[in-house]
Amino acid sequence: MLDDKLELESFLPYRLYHIADLVSREFAKIYKDRLGLTRPEWRVLAGLGQHGAMTAKAIGEQSAMHKTKVSRAVAELERRRWLTRTPDETDRRVEHLTLSKAGQTVYAEMVPLARAFERRLSRAMGAARFAEFEYGLERLETFMLEGGLSDE
Amino acid sequence: MLDDKLELESFLPYRLYHIADLVSREFAKIYKDRLGLTRPEWRVLAGLGQHGAMTAKAIGEQSAMHKTKVSRAVAELERRRWLTRTPDETDRRVEHLTLSKAGQTVYAEMVPLARAFERRLSRAMGAARFAEFEYGLERLETFMLEGGLSDE
DNA sequence: TTTCAATGGTTACATCTGTAACCAATTCAG
DNA sequence: CTGAATTGGTTACAGATGTAACCATTGAAA
Fold it and tell me: Can you give the residue ranges of the HTH marR-type domain (chains A, B) (predicted)?
C-alpha cells in the first residue's frame, strides 16, 4: 500500500470502535425494547445483580463509568423503585445500593438476554476464534491500561 | 459460573465497547493535541485524503458517520480552509469536497501518527495475534451487518 | 408539463455526556 | 483540638450527538 495514504476501513482503532458500536447498539436495542433500560442503567443493574450491594463509586469503577453517569442512572433506577439506598453506618457520605425485589426481577430477565446475545456472537465467530478474540482484547486492554500511554 | 449471574467484566459486548473506547480516546488525544482535530473531523480528513474528492454522503458512508456529524465536521474544516466545496455540474444538490493545500498538509501529518499508533498496538499484541484479532473483527462485522439482526 | 416522492444537505431541538463547581462528611497535619 | 485537604456524591453548565423537520433540487408518474 502507498505509504502516504491510510486506508480508513482497515485502520484498527477505527474498525474496533465502529464494530464495538454496532454490537453495543444492537444489544442495547434488545434491552431497551424489553426492559426500558439505557446503557448506563443496564450497567448499574448488572453491577448490583452481580455483587449484591455496592456504593456508587464501586459501580463506577467496575463498569468504567463516569461518576455523573452512575449518579444519574442510579437516580433513575431509584425513581422506578428498582433499587434502594442505605446510608453507611460509619461514613455518612456513603450509600450502599441494593436491588429491590422488582430490580431483582428485571436483573433475572436481563441475564438470559445477555447470555443469548453473547452466544449468538460466539456462534457467528466460531467458539475457538471467539476465545482467541477475547484473548486479543485482553492483551489490548492490558497494554492500554499500562504502557500504552507513553509515546514510543 | 452460576447461571443466574453475569460477570460484567467478561461480557463481550461490554469488554469490546470499553476497550474500543480506551483505544479511541487514547488515539484521539494524540491528534487532538497535535492537529486540533475532533474525531469526526479526523475521519472526514481521512476520507478526503484517501479518496481525493467525495460528497458529504460518501464520506458518511465510508466512515460510518451520521450525516449531521459529517455536515458539522465539514463546516468546521471549511472554516479553517482545510477543504473546499465545489458544486456538482449536473446536480446542484451535491457538493464535491476536496482538501486544500493546507488540508493536504494536515493529512500528511496525520497519516504517520496513525501508522505509528497502530504499530504500537500491533507490537503490544504480537503481530500474529494482531492479525488473528483483525480477522475476528472481520467476522464480527460481517455478522452484525448481515444476520445479526434477527432474533435467534 | 405538472405534481409528488425521493435525495443531498443543513438546522432546530431534545438528550446525553463530561468538566467543573459544589456540598457535606471525613481524615490528616500541625 | 482546629483548619486544610480529601472523598463520596450531586448538580449546573457547556459541548457533542441523534431525531425530526426542513429547504432546495431532482426524478418519476400521470
Answer: 9-142
Q: Would you say B144 and B89 are in contact if contact means Cβ atoms under 8 Å apart?
A: no
**CATH of the structural domain A8-149, one choice from 1.10.10.10, 1.10.3720.10, 3.10.20.740, 3.90.1150.10:** 1.10.10.10
Residue B49 sits at the chain A interface (C-beta within 8 Å): yes
pLDDT, position B147: 67
pLDDT of the residue at B150: 53
User: Chain A contacts of B14, Cβ < 8 Å?
Assistant: 43, 46, 63
DSSP string of B62-100, one letter each residue: HHT--HHHHHHHHHHHHHTTSEEEEE-SS-TT-EEEEE-
Cα torsion angle, B123, B128, B134, B137, sign: negative
Distance B77 CA to C27 C1' (A): 50
Residue A148 confidence class, pLDDT cut points 50, 70, 90: low
CB A105 within 8 A of CB B95: no
Output the average pLDDT for chain A.
Answer: 94
> SS3 of B47, please?
helix
B12 in contact with A at a CB cutoff of 8 Å? yes
Say if residue B152's pLDDT is above 90.
Answer: no
- The radius of gyration computed from the CA coordinates of chain A, to the nearest angstrom, equals 19
pLDDT digits (tens, 9 = 90+) for A46-72: 999 999 999 999 999 999 999 999 999
